[in-house]
Structure prediction request, 744 residues.
Amino acid sequence: MTRTGLFRVLMLTALFFGLLAPAESASPGRKLLVESLLSRMTLEEKIGQMTLFTSTWDQTGPTVNADYLAYVQQGKCGGLFNAFTASYTRYLQNIAVTQTRLKIPLLFGYDVIHGHRTIFPIPLGESCTWNLEALERSARIAAIEASAEGIHWVFSPMVDIARDPRWGRVSEGSGEDVFLGSLIARAKVRGYQGPDLSAPDSVIACAKHFAAYGAAQAGRDYNTTDISDRTLEETYLPPFRACSEAGARTFMTAFNEIAGVPCTANRHLITDTLRKRWGFEGFVVTDYTSINELVPHGIASDEAEAGRLALQAGVDMDMQGAVYLKHLATMVRKGEVPEALIDDAVRRILTVKAELGLFEHPFKGCDEVREARVVFCDEHLAASREIARESFVLLKNEGGVLPFRKDLRSIAVIGPLADATTDLLGNWHGAGDGGKVLSVLGAVREAVSSSTKVLFAKGTDVSGRGVSRPSGLREALDTARKADAVLLVLGETETMSGEAASRSDIDLPGRQNELAELIARSGKPVAAILLNGRPLAITRLHKAVPAILEAWYPGSMGGKAICDVVFGDFSPSGKLTMTFPRSVGQIPLYYNMKNTGRPESENKYTSKYIDVPNSPLYPFGHGLSYTTFRYSDLRLSAKTLSRDGRLAVSVTVTNTGARDGEEVVQLYLRDLVGSVTRPIRQLAGFRKIHIPKSESRTVTFDLAADDLAFLRANMSWGTEPGDFEVLVGGDSENLLKDTFHLLD
Ligand code: NOJ
Prediction:
């Protein structure tokens, strides 16, 4: 019987026995299908479904690794990752559905992190848009492109809260804030999965890395995490819970341990919290060889034991480690692990495959014609450009240096990243192609008037080696002197952030500060564009140049998006989602810190440094515009809030500058006295609004008692009566303030 035929027979049987009403036909029919398959699978075939392997690629296309292909043929591999293009995934899927005994389709996963072929800004940059619709849209576009190439599963969103910019993976997340991070997590899951998982252009999301990977000590990747249960619950888990609530079908365990228990063997996290408390019904995959790593972690003496621990913790799928494949069957036969645990895992995996519609349509979405039509299409590129320019954060702009005019006589584009292409895509750019990217220099040439001369000098390279000889700097200064204005393009190469890219010094690498200081002495108007994957400690650059635009790694259309802002076609509106420290010694530095018993003051014996203030260089929420906004008239609808009541908080925002602009209006709360200490402020609402020049808008936030809930001293979530501060403004430091009382 054909696959579709089998599926129909099972569905009809289910209908006949009254197991399903037409309106909810999907779920019981699916159950029947899964149970029927499960009952016919050998132990080895079941373990195969729990095994995920990577494919191998070379530069001209796929190369087939004999081993994983053999496993697919023998039904010992349920999914593959790092395989894409419609033709390649079709070739592989065909093996699974024609050559294996049970013809169970493969699941194809891939690191589609910020776009598939059309690359969007890195997630940290994209979060600075504070535009949830845009964030959902880029995920939708990524799903459309990836699914056309046969991908069913994206290893995204990465929802690790991160407070340590030394950690290279801050680039993959949405910054330091739980409230914003949780909203973004939901938007991403919605975008990837769409309203119907079985649709040809829907892919399943994967919430990663579960959990607290962002709390790695000293910002060193894969390092130990040791945080309190309170911090875990309040800070690191909420975005994961948001993913689960939004229906994410998979979770990926993190590499790190938490207080002595590696996440891949952490039953408390996977089974007790994720499944039992949150009701998650999808499946859990490990990160790359995480089960094997339980041995060097020191909680398993060999891989077999590691496999047992992972299975017992609730891990369903082994990514690339082959531990389940090698050891589970023997352990079941010896009675060391119950087969029921394996059945549970396989049931979850097959259910997700069924939800995706793969049993009916194993080649779902995978379509060369659609691939050619949607991949890198004009509409997607336009979206990438729009989102990129919205993600840029104007860190400073003294004297209104920016925007530059397009009809200058000459402009010098200087710096090690001025003519970079692949670097604009940023780390984890998946199937993105640096060869299709226009550099900032190339984009400037296209943007300026035909009479404007565009000069270029590299000056130095990012590492400080290569062309960093004094002659390179001298040549750059000569070039600057010949120009009417200078655009400096500085930062980190794309490989300096992302996985395994922690840095102990997060200033600009190499001799870039020297270059900036030299160019600033040319006396020309200078603006620096930063391309980087983390907050940098750029106190030197801040002192050297009057204008700095943080452009992150902006993606496929980065060069043009930068020019949109540099030449004033678009007024910047991005706001930081992660604090920029003055120096690396202040880390961890985040806006919602505690007050301490000795808050910083003139007094020597208070919580501070003797060599640097506690305040950041640029605070969370900061970002300038080409116009200016004034906040006034903060009003509360009442001075008290009852447990079931509501409180309206409004503020007037006036565009006091010379052009229209967008502003992210931010609302923070502070609980003044609690049964445990509370942060000095916490984001509790925001609105992104467009305000024409000289006009005002009133923004109203609606608060309920639930918005004031926290993990109380007895570790239960809820509110406590008392006084609260409500703070509203355009960043986390410059805020209007009022107070209200939460009634008992
Ligand atoms: C390791 C990374 O930690 C994870 O984020 C990624 O999804 C997997 N490798 C697969 O490439």
